């Protein structure tokens, strides 16, 4: 690829970016889009200053950037949670390390590469990008030690920065734990694999076991219920009934907003089922949280509440029974984080599910080779002409060539990549995690492996040896293979940074999908009501892998093709602004219902180390190819030192991300006992986990202290007042008949009146 | 190799075996060797019926085999510990599975291979062994499905047997734990990484921490002392002094036995230091076990005693501090099992040591390629003749050829292999384990990897592609490579079974080293005294890898070269008798001072699964080479099923080998509290771990209840009465001067009188 093609690509992307960003700064001021850009805040305060037409609304302005800067880390932490901060720290780390790398490489390496060979340099814009690569340096050049030194500097800087970030985030996590004084998850253990007994109910079994073996600290427990087929049918019936009632209301209720064109397909929230619910039932449910309406549907899992945090941690860490598949204990996730529909899964199934999803992910990764092979074919023009001869005419034009080779491949790749996160999320769901955050973390790892494999390795290997996918089968040649292939594919990676990085960032800030959906909703489906369920949670499982992948490209290309670094740095800077905005942003746009408590950081750390080691191995290969054994030899201690550093961090910090330190928990317990808060916490604890709160589930935390458990609890206990599901499940037969009648009515009405 | 060469080799080995075994049955009756064969029993009862010349003593008799059979598993368990039983179970498992395999393969596969091709068969003994291999079966033969079916049967049988063995051993381990009612290790936690404080001593820090955070269950603690340079010097001085006193005694004491030729180099036990020790010192040490004579040598480790077993397990499982490198807790090993000289190692060093020894082991493994390459060169006659042309004349003789190709290679390999276990034991010591059993287990794993790599893989790969060690670098071709190479090397493996298996078994029963050492000691060095320290503990780290390696050879060769199976079966049967004898044997010959509590079994299980999968992968390759895609395809589900089975066992049983189930411990605690035994246990607990008991350390448990902790404790408290080391360490300066004078006297005497 020529420099001019790259510039074309960069131009297109800068144009798209600028357009989208100005559009965003205009659109965000339009009242109609307020629920796209301020979904979070909307849940808080319902529609102030709607419908005020001012000219200022239509002038692009950078005020949102200024606003994004105004938030301090403390504010973001308290509002959007630790995960958001960790994510931003990952970007800050990238900015720091790539600033250093960019300065050193652009001023140190780039001239060396450019003047690496005695050659005639073309006119600047039409020069091939390869002259900026290490491929242009002569063999046995004595300048290769500069490359070696630069890699040492980058590695040392990266490790130092990583160490301090890890330390800081570990500290933040500790503070995060100790600062949430009444988080019910600290007192609760999820028990799975409760053995079935013919003599007593599962609930009795749980009570007996824990009073016998954990008597002094056991407080209470709450069984998990399996939502069986009948319940599913009934909850569907409820939905249809709701819709029917709503339809009724909107059609005939004079108080309802005028709504002329309305199809029957749109969901709507209502509290229509309130009518078939007696106050006595509510109070019964409240007083006895373990009372079950359908005792035959109890499943072999329960939440067990303990009197102290330490007791809960102890119960979760110790092997309970001499059959490790029974009485499996884990610390419970936070109430909002519980993934209820996975809890009834038999524990002894889980290992099979884990293996099955692992295999499925691997198969999916390899199936994905088909589009990738196609894409990397596009970047080699002669290959296309050979395969698709009818394109020969078009491909003669310079501009078309530049678009096809410079821009199209990464766009196509990008489009295919959009299918990956939902698929991986599906796999992670099937895997059977007990928490939403666990599911997201698992999906994040899967997407990360997927992206690194499919974007980096497959492009590198099949780009160099087209259609020959067995390059991976000889590990010894990998450094040399990589060394040959990476510089050659560097231009593809630069365009990838442009399209995947820049453009996706601006589409992220634009919330293109949200905008389109909002438009459709308003002007096609004519829905006026804002559904709080539609406020998304931040897609860490797509954003973290993207940032890490671009970091990988940066490290591996840094000394081989330093031209990528400025583009990457711009990406990270832009990303910092955009994600801060989205975290003015996560405070505005997204809803953080649950979080992993910073457990994303070890993923970031490990991937960065992997990237560094990969870069070093590739450099080893390159120096080998350039016949510079000294530089090549100097790489080996660097690899070893980096791995040792990683191992040290794993020993020093990683346990903190898997366990709670007993010391902190005991101190918290003591403080609570002395201040007399413990009683209150215990009371709240018993009602914290409710399996069937359909509406409260979707309400986002709106106060400034989103991470504090006590607030959550208040909210969830409030939301129990309009619970409709649990009582529906426990309906007596007579009421069930009412529902069925209503449903049949609705079906007949639907078939007549539906405009679709 | 011809069948006749194999028969020669078998003949030599049978001869050696028969000779050694009859020698054994004679020698074991000689009173002079009683401390070789009955070292254990000797520690018990001192020399009955010595010097009674009866003719019967010189007649070989199989009575020892009968005796070996008489012991029940219960007796072995109670006398020699769980590890001995686990080891015997591994052999029983091997006998069972290889009986099945031998019957099926010899009657099912062998004829198929023999008549696999339309060929003229030579006279029986001079026929090449290759006709019995799968290599003799024609390509696309329709009989290959028999091989496939047989492998299915063997795999299913192996998995079923493994499952029941695992279940049984898990149960035995549970009983082993619950049956040792007062094992001090159940109440004790080893804390490492105690943070240094300027304000208080380490001991104070430990007390404060545990009273603060584990107040209700904390009982006491005991610091670990670092044996510094001065102590080492003094303990050396003590040894020399002892020797001097002994020399004095033997030279001038009329009560001593007449001892004409005595050099000054031999160690001797005495209680000569008793004289400089006052009773008051002993009682002081007894009353205050944490009292230190040299407080400046305290190191950052301590044994912490808890009131209940459950509390100790909890403290060992929970992350204590927010710095995971501080306050690291593990369940303590049993008092005899503690590896004191590793306890002072700073905890933050251990991960580095672990990595360093791993690297050292790998380097050692690869350095070992040199002798192995030489050995496998020997088995290819033309290669030898080409390299060492002067041997051409000798190598013409048929008998020499048979010896060189059939017997010599495995003997040389065997000799080199003898250096491996001590080296690996050294590595495992450097690694820094806290217990002797942990060190042995670690050495066992290392030796196992080493043997499998160097005996199996290197022989297979470099045997087929001589001097070309890069076969491992292309994983995709491995099945095909193995499929080509394994049948070719099958004859080498058969001879390996003969030499390494049969001959080493008979040398094990003979205790050749012990016998030679005993002879030297008696007739060259003229030592009469029996040193109890010379009674060895059972070398699990050499025997388990050998049994597992032969199992690996059996599985991989079963359908390819079924001729190995009868030899293997004989080995295992012989092994069963020999090891039972040594376990009449472990009860007689060896001293089981410590044990892993059956934690060797997961190693056996995993290796067997590995062998099975390897056999299946090789079969996959072989069927591929024979162009039988159906049979080849049928191997893939078998591999997957075997791996799934392994994963199931890992989930179901493995946690039991790493943790104690809380349920059992709590029941034990309750039983002890109700019966009032707890107080007594607590009292014994405080004196259970003594860092400096030089003599008691070497005394083997002689009663029938070797695994019971209470007996051990009694014994160790008894042995405190003749402690000499701790008081030496705390000697006042005046006494130190006495020692130094004695040493200088001794040195001058030595230089004059030593006959060497």
UniProtKB/TrEMBL annotation, chains A, B:
Q: Which UniProt keywords apply?
A: Ion channel, Ion transport, Membrane, Transmembrane, Transmembrane helix, Transport
Q: Does the keyword Ion transport apply?
A: yes
Domain named CSC1/OSCA1-like N-terminal transmembrane is located at: 5-165
Q: Where is this region: Disordered?
A: 701-726
What Gene Ontology terms describe what this protein does at the molecular function level?
Answer: calcium-activated cation channel activity
Looking at the record's lineage, which domain of life comes first? Answer: Eukaryota
Q: Where in the cell is it found?
A: Membrane
One GO cellular component assignment for this chain's record is:
plasma membrane
How this chain sits in the membrane, per its record, is: Multi-pass membrane protein
| Stretches assigned to the CSC1/OSCA1-like cytosolic domain | 186-342
Transmembrane parts of this sequence: 6-27, 86-110, 143-164, 355-378, 398-418, 447-466, 547-579, 600-624, 630-649
Record-annotated CSC1/OSCA1-like 7TM region domain positions: 353-623
Sequence ranges of Basic and acidic residues compositional bias: 711-723
Cross-referenced InterPro entries: Csc1-like (IPR045122), CSC1/OSCA1-like_7TM (IPR003864), CSC1/OSCA1-like_cyt (IPR027815), CSC1/OSCA1-like_N (IPR032880)
Q: One Pfam match, by short name?
A: PHM7_cyt
Using the UniProt record, give the first listed, main subcellular location.
membrane
Instruction: Tell me its family.
Output: Belongs to the CSC1 (TC 1.A.17) family.
PANTHER family reported in the protein's UniProt record: CSC1-LIKE PROTEIN RXW8, PROBABLE MEMBRANE PROTEIN DUF221-RELATED
In its UniProt entry, what is this protein called? Answer: CSC1-like protein RXW8
Q: Which species expresses this protein natively?
A: Musa balbisiana (Banana)
């Amino acid at each position: 690829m020529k420099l001019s093609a790259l510039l074309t690509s960069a131009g297109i992307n800068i144009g798209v970016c600028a357009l989208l960003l100005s559009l965003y700064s205009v659109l965000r001021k339009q009242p109609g889009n307020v629920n796209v850009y301020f979904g979070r805040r909307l849940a808080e305060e319902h529609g102030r200053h709607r419908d005020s037409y001012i000219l200022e609304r239509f002038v692009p302005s950078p005020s949102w950037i200024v606003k994004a800067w105004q938030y301090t880390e403390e504010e973001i932490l308290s509002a959007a949670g630790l995960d958001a901060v960790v994510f931003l720290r990952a970007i800050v780390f990238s900015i720091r390390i790539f600033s250093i790398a960019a300065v050193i490489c652009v001023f140190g390496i780039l001239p060396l590469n450019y003047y690496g060979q005695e050659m005639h340099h073309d006119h600047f814009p039409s020069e091939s990008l390869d002259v900026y690569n290490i491929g242009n340096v002569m063999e046995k050049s004595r300048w290769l030690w500069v490359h070696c030194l630069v890699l040492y500097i980058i590695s040392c800087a990266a490790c130092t920065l990583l160490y301090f970030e890890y330390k800081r985030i570990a500290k933040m996590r500790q503070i995060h734990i100790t600062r949430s004084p009444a988080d019910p998850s600290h007192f609760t253990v999820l028990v799975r694999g409760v053995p079935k007994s013919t003599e007593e109910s599962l609930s009795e079994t749980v009570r007996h076991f824990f009073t016998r073996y954990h008597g002094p600290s056991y407080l209470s427990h709450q069984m998990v219920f399996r939502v069986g087929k009948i319940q599913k049918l009934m909850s569907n019936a409820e939905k249809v009934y709701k819709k029917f009632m709503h339809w009724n209301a909107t059609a005939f209720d004079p108080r309802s907003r005028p709504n002329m064109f309305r199809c029957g397909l749109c969901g709507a929230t209502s509290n229509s089922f309130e009518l078939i619910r007696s106050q006595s039932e509510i109070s019964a449910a409240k007083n006895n949280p373990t009372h079950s309406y359908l005792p035959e549907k109890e499943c072999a899992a329960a939440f067990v509440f303990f009197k102290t945090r330490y007791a809960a941690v102890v119960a979760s860490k110790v092997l309970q029974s001499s059959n490790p598949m029974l009485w499996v204990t884990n610390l419970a996730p936070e109430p909002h984080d519980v993934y209820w529909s996975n809890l009834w899964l038999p524990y002894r199934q889980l290992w099979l599910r884990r293996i099955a999803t692992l295999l499925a992910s691997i198969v999916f990764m390899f199936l994905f080779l088909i589009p990738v092979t196609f894409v990397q074919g596009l970047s080699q023009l002669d290959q296309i002409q050979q395969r698709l001869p009818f394109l020969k005419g078009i491909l003669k034009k310079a501009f078309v060539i530049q678009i096809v080779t410079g821009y199209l491949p990464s766009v196509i790749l990008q489009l295919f990549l959009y299918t990956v996160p939902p698929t991986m999320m599906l796999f992670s769901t099937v895997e059977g995690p007990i928490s939403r955050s666990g599911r997201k973390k698992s999906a994040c790892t899967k997407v990360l492996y997927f992206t690194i494999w499919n974007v980096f390795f497959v492009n590198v290997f099949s780009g160099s040896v087209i259609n020959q996918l067995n390059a991976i089968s000889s590990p010894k040649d990998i450094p040399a293979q990589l060394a040959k292939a990476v510089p050659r594919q560097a231009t593809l990676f630069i365009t990838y940074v442009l399209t995947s990085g820049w453009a996706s960032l601006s589409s992220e800030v634009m919330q293109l999908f949200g905008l389109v959906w909002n438009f459709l909703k308003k002007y096609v489906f004519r829905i006026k009501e804002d559904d709080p369920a539609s406020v998304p949670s931040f897609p860490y499982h797509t954003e973290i892998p993207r940032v890490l992948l671009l970091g990988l490209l940066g490290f591996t290309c840094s000394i081989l093709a330093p031209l990528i670094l400025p583009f990457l740095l711009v990406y990270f800077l832009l990303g910092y602004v955009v994600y801060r905005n989205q975290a003015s942003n996560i405070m505005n746009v997204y809803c953080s219902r649950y979080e992993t408590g910073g457990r994303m950081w070890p993923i970031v750390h490990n991937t960065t180390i992997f990237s560094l080691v990969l870069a070093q191995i590739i450099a080893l290969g390159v120096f080998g190819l350039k016949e510079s054994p000294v530089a090549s030899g100097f790489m080996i201690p660097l690899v070893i030192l980096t791995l040792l550093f990683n191992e040290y961090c794993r020993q020093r910090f990683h346990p903190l991300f898997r366990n709670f330190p007993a010391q902190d928990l005991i101190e918290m317990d003591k403080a609570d006992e002395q201040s007399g808060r413990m009683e209150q916490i215990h009371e709240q604890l018993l009602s914290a986990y409710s399996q069937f709160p359909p509406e409260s589930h979707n309400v986002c935390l709106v106060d400034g202290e989103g991470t504090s458990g006590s607030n959550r609890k208040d909210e969830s206990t409030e939301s129990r007042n309009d619970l409709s599901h649990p009582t529906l499940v426990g309906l007596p037969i007579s009421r069930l008949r009412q529902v069925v009648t209503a449903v049949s009515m609705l079906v007949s009405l639907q078939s007549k009146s539906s405009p679709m």
